[in-house]
Structures are given as C-alpha cells and as structure tokens.
Amino acid sequence: MPKRYPQDQRARAVRMVLDHLSEYDSVFAACSAIGPKLNIGRESLRRWVLQAQIDADERPGVTSAEQTRIRELESENRELREANEILKKASIFFARDLDPRRRK
Length: 104
What we know:
Layout: H1 7-19, H2 27-38, H3 42-55, H4 64-98
Helix pairs in contact: 1-3, 2-3
C-alpha cells in the first residue's frame, strides 16, 4: 500500500528540489539525491516535482485542477449513465403494462 505524506511535507520537498535543481543534471538526479535525505521515495518526489512544474506552466501537461475536474466529470458521467439505464429499464417495464395487445 502506498505511503501517504502530509501535504506540507510534500510541498517542502518539492520546493527544496526546485531550489536545488540547477545543481543537478536532471529532475531525476535531484530527486535521487534529495529524496533519501527526506525519507521520501525518489519516484514519488520526481512525480510531485513534475506535477508542480506543470501547475506552474513550466512544463506541458494536465494541471492538478484540471485532473480534479476531469475526475468529477467522469464520476458525474458514470452516475448519469447508470440513471439512464435504470430509466430505460423502467420505461420498458411500464410500456409492457400499458400495451393494449397484452390486455385481455
């Protein structure tokens, strides 16, 4: 199960990597050096830094706010599809009852 880090710890770690990024060849190298010192996995730290760069428009990609909005819309879409399916089944059920050919 993935380890959960407090938001303030994540923010401090990202800020530290971004502050010292010029001292390293790449984001990966910076995260590999700084991550163990903070007891944070280098891949987790690298992903946080990349997302922070995307959020700051320094790198192309989907921002955190957009990701949240997409998740909300997908959830809403799923709920609406389920509701439509229920309504379709209900209309078929009641249409059968109202069919004059079935009454005797």
